[in-house]
Amino acid sequence: MDRSKASAIYHGIKSRCYNKNNVSFKDYGGKGVTMCEDWLKDKESFFIWLEYSGWSPGCEIHRENANLGYSPENCVVILSVNNRRQSKSNTSLFVRAAQEMGLSGKELAERWSVTQRQISNIGKSPSQKDWDALEGIKKEINLKKK
Questions:
Q1: The whole model's pTM is what?
Q2: Which residues have CB under 8 Å from 109's CB, separation 6+?
Q3: Which of 33, 29, 10 is nearest to 21 (CA)?
Q4: How far apart are the C-alpha atoms of 80 and 131, rounded to whole Å?
Q5: C-alpha angle with apex 123: 3 to 59, nearest 5 degrees?
Q6: 111: helix, strand or coil
């Protein structure tokens, strides 16, 4: 994991939530959006979550419930904003599947013989192999829920 990019994400989130001089504060901290105590007190715990969640350059942190703050329970890793509309649900499915199975994003990708980049590309120009992996993961999740 690229620590400098991960650190920039961490400090960006923290600044939006707590720095009243940040131009985005009004949309985050100004509305009560916070960073969970674990991440706020220990940047390393954020890095561990980020890596576990399958983050790679080109991805971003998405709060599933916009009324809640940044925490492992409310955040998922998705593609950057320019790809969000097309691929958010499929990419998030991979991230959630990894979490439900107790695997890292990398381990899940290896399990289905795809790369993490292929997971990120599903909304842009998926190959048949990408879709086959996604369908297999969906079936595995549904079987696990029964």
A1: 0.56
A2: 54, 94, 115, 116, 118, 119
A3: 29
A4: 20
A5: 15
A6: helix
Per-residue model confidence as pLDDT tens for the chain (146 residues): 678 888 999 999 999 999 999 999 999 999 999 999 999 999 999 999 998 888 887 788 888 888 899 999 988 887 664 334 434 455 555 666 666 666 666 676 777 677 666 665 554 444 556 556 666 666 665 555 55
Residues paired with residue 70 on neighbouring β-strands, in sequence order: 35
Compute φ and ψ for 59, nearest 5 degrees.
Answer: -110, 165
Residue 33 CA, distance from chain mean position: 18
**CA-CA-CA-CA dihedral for 41, 65, 121, 14, to nearest 10:** -30
